[in-house]
Amino acid sequence: MAERGARLLLSLLCLTFLYPATTVSRHAEKGTAARPFSPFWFSVEPWDTLAVRGAPALLNCSAHSGDPASEPTAPQARVEWKKDGTFLSLAPDDGRRRVLPDGSLLISSVVHSKHNKPDEGTYQCVATIDSLGTIASRTARLTVAGMPRFSSQPAAVSIRLGDSQVLACDVNPDLVPLARWEREREPLELSSRLVQLPNGALVVSNASEADAGLYRCMVENAGPAKTSEEAQLTILPETGEERVLEFLVEPLPVTKVVGASLLLPCVVTGYPAPYVRWMVGDKLVEESEGKLELVGGGSLLIYNLTEEDAGVYSCMADITNNTIEAKAELTVQVPPEFLKRPANIYAHESMDIMFQCEVTGSPAPTVKWVKNGDAVIPSDYFKIINEHNLQVLGLVKSDEGFYQCLAENDAGNMQSSAQLIILEHDVALPTPPPPSLTPDTTDHVTPGSRGVANPTGPTPSAPRDVVASLVSTRFIKLTWRPPAEPNGEDLTYSVYFNQEGTNRERILNTSRPGEMQVTIQNLMPDSKYKFRVVAHNKNGLGESSAVLKVATQGEVQVPGPAPNLQAVSTTPTSVTLSWDTPLTGNGDVLTYKVYYMEKGLDLEQDIDAGALSYTLMGLKKFTEYSIRVVAFNKHGPGVSTGDITVTTLSDVPSAPPQNLTVEVHNSKSILVRWQPPPPGAQNGEITGYKIRYRKGTRKSEAAETTGGTQLFQLIDGLERGTEYTFRVSAITVNGSGPATEWSTAETFESDLDESRVPDIPSSLHVRPLVNSIVVSWTPPENQDMVVRGYTIGYGIGSPHAQTIKVDYKQRYYSIENLDPSSHYVITLKAFNNVGEGIPVYESAITRPQSDPIDPDVDLYELFHAPYTPVPDPTPMLPPVGVQASVLSHDTIKVTWADNSLPKNQKITDARYYTVRWKTNIPANTKLKTANTTNLSHMVTGLKPNTLYEFSVMVTKGRRTSTWSMTAQGTTFETIPSSSPKDVTVVSKELKPRTIIVNWQPPSEANGKITGYIIYYSTDVNAEVHDWVIEPVVGNRLTHQIQELTLDTTYYFKIQARNSKGMGPMSEAVHFRTPKTESSDKMANDQANLPVKPGSNQPPLDHGFGSSHGKPGITGSGDNHILVIVVIISVGAFTIIVVVVGAFLCTRRTTSHQKKKRAASKSSNSSHKYKGNSKDLKPPDLWIHHERLELKPIDKSPEPNPVMTDTPIPRTSQDINPVDPSLDNSLLQRRNSYRESVRNTPSTEPLPPQAQPPCQAEHQHPEPEGSYQDSTATDDEPSASGSYCSAGQPPTTHVRPTHPLKSFAVPANPAAIFESPALPSMPLLTQTGPQLHSVKTASIGTLGRVRPPMSVTVPSAPDVPETSKMLEDVDSVLASLPSCSSLAPRSNPVPFPQSYEPDELTEEMAHLEDLMKDLNAITTA
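Now predict its structure.
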């Protein structure tokens, strides 16, 4: 029986221990069931495909899920296909289209006809796993090639030997890749001489006799090849007769995707053989292997296109007396790329989340969001933020699945997916987040969850008394009381709310533990909401409070927006507006106000309108305006309409083109150049320019018209040696504007010769630097020969290593990237279409690496060597007096004089001026030029706050002057045009409520940055005026922000300002503060908290035998009491010694005082010291000052005492920091007392080796009549400063013959009261055989004020009692802390000259008061 009882007892004990373990295990299984993210992605996606009718087409697609290593049995994805957004219904018996096992779509035979195109369109692959969700691939375009058709076919043609010709073959654009050429029915092998153009045509350049034959074009499709007609190419011998220069094929505007290759066609014919060159913008295109290549006699082939290759390309062809040019714009598109992909997210129901997606591309991509394969439609709960990010409010279980960001532009499309998993409320959000699962996604845990993994105790009951303490139109503030049964400490709360009629409940958490209020924002006006509050403790979610129903207030009874606002431009200067009555007028509308603003300006104007329409008058022509309308009723202005834009009608230009110049090109042509009319006078889009010209004084005119962007025209077919006049007018769709003044030029009598190569250049100069050589030259002396350019050859020891070609107008070149200390040989040759002329040679040795540049060398002249003209009997003089007048932040007016003109400076001939300018920042900035016929030029489009250099030269016919001397001008500042960059936010170590914001200045500051403004808020979508601002000075790039709320996301923006105003704000940067205080701070806080009842921590025992004490102190409580007693005793003894010493100092014998007064009278009468200087001693005024400084500061009977409180410190280093936590009055007493004691000079003279050097100077008496400055100079530090820094008594202006010949009085500690610094008064100077300077301090706001009296301080006798008193004080001084904590000294002020007996009696009374105060302190 006993054995059975023992077994039963043992079983009960086992059950007792096993039951809690089982419960905890069950809770753990439930609480940690956060399933991992499931990888689900496309390994292959479809791409654009060109298919052929009747042939098969394959669109690849393959989807995968899970990790094969860890999940070998991962579910297979079910793949479906969409065509043009609709799922394809692939019937089992549809043998033509089927999905392969890997998910690819196979179309066995493409069907395509004129009226039936079932296979052509946009396809998308959709993969689904029922337990996970659905993802969609990128879209792909299937294009079906049509039947081959020739819109033009090759025709028989003849070509001169060495010339170029084009054989046409225009086929369908989609079949051009399938086209090829045959000669004599044999495949033609293409080369750099035989080139097939993008439209299929064949170019034969530099023709030879072997090129003759029958040519035909073929297109190979799925069926039989289609061939064009055959054409005979005949080669003719060259006759040497001049042929007109003309384009056979011109380049056309083209758009390509980055990474592709491109052929820009340019085929030219003429004789002599034309010289073809390409320009992009104003830069000459040079061939480079693997990137740029000239083929087919002039076409430009560009490989591997980049964004930098985009621009306007010009093909220019030159022949003896003619130049032609054709332009085409190249646009390079960039497919979308992800800068930030959406991340996987864990969340709980009712939370708000945001998927982030940042993309880039050109053109700017558009972003669409897809959830489980279906497009996300924006609503109150699904919102698109910042055009790219998706925000989901108030999560419900059905929101779970895969979300995809689809980015698309004209160059292509991309997609990236992320998974959303919604956990149960008793499952904690995993921290830290698991690693990334696929290359396309990252993982993220939404903060703010209160889930708990292992609940082990009771949860809180429901919060009590939930009320809406503040109700507005768009926000509600809730407050409540803690639960009756909190079951723990540091409760946090969550507020769940939803709008009545919706099932989506949102959640908002309190910002810190214990907070029992929250404000719910962004609500709808006049709407009903339901609220409930739940408390959390360490065990998890508690009970929910009862539902509280609250309705927001209606908006103020003002009118709504006026609907149907329309604007129509009726004339070039007026716009007619119309609108309808507001739907919610809330009473009678009294009036309307129209607000309008010119685009690009910040000034909005308004005007009243009484009806439902209004006509704005006096507007600018062809200008875009932004307009809105606001209705007013008796309550005030209503809701504004949205802004609409309207552009006024165009008109004819109101001003002529600018800077018209005429340049004689040869004996039969003149080149006319101009600039557009001023922007404000164009009055529309310039569609062209009309050039009118006439011969001599004839009245009959000829005219030519150019395109709108062409700013020059070559007028040819003119007569030799004849004067012509020209003028230009601008054209809009409305007609021609006013013309320029007539400008005159005379053609040459004869043309330049190009029958042979040019002569040798007349000179060549080199200037070596460390890594470069500057080469300058002059053209050949015989200017009758055509020079089309110069060839520069250079190399180490040989000039044939590198070759550079430059334009014929250039007169200098800088050869870069050379080796230091190397011998280079340089050659220069002029060339034309016939060939290269005779070279001229020069050599130079580059400087060594350590050789600095000559400081006397003008860098501008170094790199911009002046053009030295060919010797001429009458050379052109350069312009003089060049001045640059700054007009605005982007405009500088350049003016000059021309000494070759008459005194009235009137231009009567055909000369013109070329203005060039550049800035040296950055150093590689190119020169820009402009021509003008006036003696001034307005340079616009400059950068703000930038230094520019200008120079001018004059050209008349074939003669050109050198460049003038340079003039400089710095443009004005304007507001920053870019925001501060690289904004980062980090938490400060050990201070979680403090963050540090760092940034870099804006890249386009447009002036000196004078300050920054930091904006921060917890709501990134809040209005700007609702953000908190922190100003920062301009030289700072970091700033601390304190007292932030823990576990809260803050958004930061920064704005820079200069003297002109504020720049744009930076993009918002978010940062979340830590959830808890740092461990060290928490430990300190816990150490300072009192022990709570019921705590397991033992109470502190300060009684005898306690082992709890300060760190580092061990032993019993007896030792503690002993230490305290010793400290109090030493303090009391120190105070007594100081008081006794002070009392002894005041006990002066009557004889000493009489001698002092006699000496004072003697000094006042003769200003010289008489008798023995040791018979007198100075008054002990330091005790007087000490007593006064111990008096309370607020007892001054006068608001403005005569004497200053604190002089201005000489430097910022004179001001010592003061702990603001100390009591001001107490600190004043402490500093006054310590300062008075420390500043007492030592009674022992310095040993000789310890004295500063300046001491020896003051041992000698000053000559009579000399003056001695009372303040320390930079070379001679002040006494107080020397004393503090060296630990020695002051030596400056102190005679070492006796320690009391000079003394100092402490200053009132100015830094404690932070009073403004006041000017100090200079020290009184005296003359005599020996001058003793006296340093004193300002008295401050004393209870009484005495007029200043001069004091004579003779040498004092060596009295034993004085020495004894000072020895006692010196011992106290040695025991005090170092003088680094002293209050700042004041500058010396005039000292009273003498003391009367009644004043000394009053001083004794004050001393007795002082003794009483000190006795009271000692007793306490």
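The chain has a mean pLDDT of 75.
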